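Researcher: Can you fold this with magnesium ion in place?
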Amino acid sequence: MSIIIKSDEEIAAMRQAGRITAMVLERLRLQVRPGMKTKELDAIAARELEKLGAKPSFKGYQGFPANLCVSVNDEIVHGIPGERILAEGDIVSLDFGAIFMGFHGDAAVTVAVGETSPQARQLIEATEGALKAGIAAAYPGARLGDISAAIQHYVEARGYSVVREYTGHGIGREMHEEPQIPNFGLVGTGPVLRKGMTLALEPMVNAGDWRTRVSDDHWTVLTADGSLSAHFEHTIAITDSEPEVLTIV
Ligand code: MG
């Protein structure tokens, strides 16, 4: 397997898939409120996808049963939407992907449910900042490790830890393509970034230790120490100059 370079036409299709992904995610973000069941978010995602003529990336992927992942508080990623009721003060990570014109978009946000603690807000801000730091390192001629290192340094400078067992990834006609993109690494290592690479950067940041465990449902990944976790993701394209974020409205 190697890193697939996309043509301008393929990037144009991915821009549309990314825009749809971002539109649905934004709709979901605005709907989050105390008292709602997480499965209501899945229903909204299904409805919006249908309206937009797109398909979910996650549903059926290795048997995943829903249109999006909903991960609450100490859940990091891969939470299955269901009967859980969101409470004031929770933080909820929404990870969503759409297929359009044969290409995937993949993006995630963490949002507060109503008012949350300053500690939770700071974790969310740091995770979003880490994603921006990773994107800011994604220039042609740089190395993949520059992105990983930028994310890790941003997170650890704020006293948090990056999850190590789950990574970002290349993306295109497949949701998961080469390369894997760890959220930790060394500057100047890894493949050289080239125009036409399309990457899903996704820092997963724990307030406590980086270690994880998987719940009895075999999907939901949680922090091993029970600390809060946040997750932000964008699909981006490497260009001639500054990186292009594809998962924006
Ligand atoms: Mg992803």
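Model: Folded with magnesium ion in place. The longest strand covers residues 91-100.
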